[in-house]
Design brief:
Layout: E1 2-3, H1 9-14, E2 18-20, E3 23-25, H2 27-32, H3 62-68, H4 101-105, H5 143-152, H6 160-165, H7 169-176, H8 181-188, H9 192-201, H10 204-214, H11 227-236, H12 241-246, H13 260-275, E4 281-285, E5 292-298, E6 309-315, E7 326-329, H14 359-371, H15 381-389, H16 391-405
Antiparallel strand pairs: 1-3, 2-3, 4-5, 5-6, 6-7
Helix pairs in contact: 7-9, 8-9, 10-11, 15-16
Length: 414
């Protein structure tokens, strides 16, 4: 800040000052005052508004996530149920009309001449008399005495949390030894006691293995001393905990050659990523069947995403390249065409898919979408409105999200 009389002409040429009464203000300082805080509401499910149950801090509850974002994209073909009847117009529920007359009239079973003893088939069979039942008065319960007994008798609390906290540490550590990495991270956030037990049960090398199993493309630019903090930061940067939990693909599974054309093409595409990858783009398969890939995109220069590394999960169907792959962001990003769940509104992986497209070309299109959003059809209407009407705040929020969630390779854990 400086007064008018103290600013010299050469300084006015180099810096663009904004006149606010008797004080000149630097526009860079004005941009820093823009509110860069923005969070999507996650108290209730954004799809059912809490109708199917709690969402536990996620943007979708378990029921909505199961139906809207299925794990298996290789859906079996739907059964072709024909509405036309057969030649004899028999639906299978009608009473047969070709029975003998003696069967229907006299209760005989066809031409064998044997009498059918079923009472429903014999019209002359006598009806069984209903047994006599005594009228029983309803039993009256003394609710007042029950309530007085509950109030006067001392008993332990019914709190589940108290019962869990009373478990011995040896038992808890035995339970923790059977949990996976995401469950261990969730258990460490319950209370300080559980956090200390998880720290004693899981070593630093194990957290290192957990990190590179979930994020094989993660490359820190500093010497990591505590891998548990790095793992926690990467989990916090994921837009959906459900998708992150099921993205762990074991490599020891049996390999089934589903389509040789598909596997040969994916092998050639992976060879290109290893030898001559596109600038700022990497990808690697996660399983032997080439069905799950992880990719990373570097934020374009001169954009709010500059300096960030965004991870993506690519799921390839068995019918690839006839059907497009499913691409979803595994890192939180603030963009009009990317939903809070990480889904991408890109036509080349939807209805405009072509056999000439590859995984590398799809990732290049996603990278170019970061600098050229299409707000006419947006995945997040609030973000698109902010991009059109409040561009300074949009850039500030996008830059803040990039620094908080997409710079784990240079940002040390707290």
């Amino acid at each position: 800040m400086a007064e008018k009389n103290d600013v010299d002409d050469e300084g006015q040429d180099d810096l663009a000052w904004v006149d606010e009464g008797d004080i000149l203000v630097d526009p860079l300082a004005v941009e820093e005052l823009v509110d860069d805080s923005f969070n999507f509401p996650n108290q209730v499910c954004s799809h059912c508004d809490g109708y199917y149950g709690p969402c536990f801090g996620q943007h979708a509850c378990t029921t909505c996530h199961l139906f809207l974002f299925p794990d298996n994209i290789n859906q079996p073909p739907e059964a072709n149920f024909s509405e036309h009847k057969t030649d004899d117009d028999d639906s299978g529920n009608d009473e047969p009309s070709d029975l003998p007359t003696d069967f229907k009239d006299n209760g005989y079973c066809g031409s064998h001449g044997q009498n059918c003893s079923h009472p429903a088939l014999s019209p002359a069979a006598p009806r069984r008399a209903e047994p006599f039942r005594w009228a029983v008065a309803p039993l009256k319960i003394d609710r007042l005495a029950e309530q007085l007994s509950l109030l006067s008798t001392p008993r332990l609390t019914d709190s589940i949390l108290t019962a869990v906290q009373a478990l011995p540490p040896e038992l808890l550590m035995q339970v923790f030894s059977h949990l996976d990495d995401i469950s261990l991270w969730s258990a460490s956030k319950v209370c300080k006691r559980w956090q200390q037990l998880v720290a004693e049960c899981i070593t630093n090398d194990q957290w290192n293995q957990f990190t590179f199993r979930r994020w094989p493309l993660f490359r820190p630019n500093y010497a990591v001393a505590e891998w548990a903090g790095v793992f926690a930061n990467l989990v916090d940067s994921s837009p959906c905990l459900y998708c992150l939990h099921r993205s762990n693909v074991e490599e020891e599974g049996a390999w089934e050659p589903s389509n040789h054309w598909r596997n040969n093409r994916l092998c050639n595409e992976w060879r290109i990523f290893c030898t001559d990858p596109p600038e700022g783009i990497r990808a690697t398969p996660l399983d032997r069947a080439w069905s799950h890939w992880q990719a990373s995109i570097t934020g374009p220069t001169s954009s709010p995403y500059e300096g960030g590394v965004f991870y993506l999960h690519v799921q390839i169907p068995h019918s690839y390249p006839i059907r497009p792959p499913s691409v979803r962001f595994a890192t939180k990003i603030f963009h009009p065409n990317i939903s809070r769940h990480g889904d991408i509104g890109l036509d080349c992986i939807q209805h405009n898919w072509s056999l000439a497209l590859t995984i590398a070309k799809v990732l290049i299109s996603v990278q170019s979408l970061l600098t050229d959003p299409f707000c006419a059809v947006a995945m997040e209407a609030d973000v698109a409105e902010m991009y059109i009407n409040k561009r300074a705040r949009f850039n500030a929020v996008a830059r803040n999200w990039t620094s908080k969630y997409a710079m784990n390779d240079i940002r040390r854990p707290c």
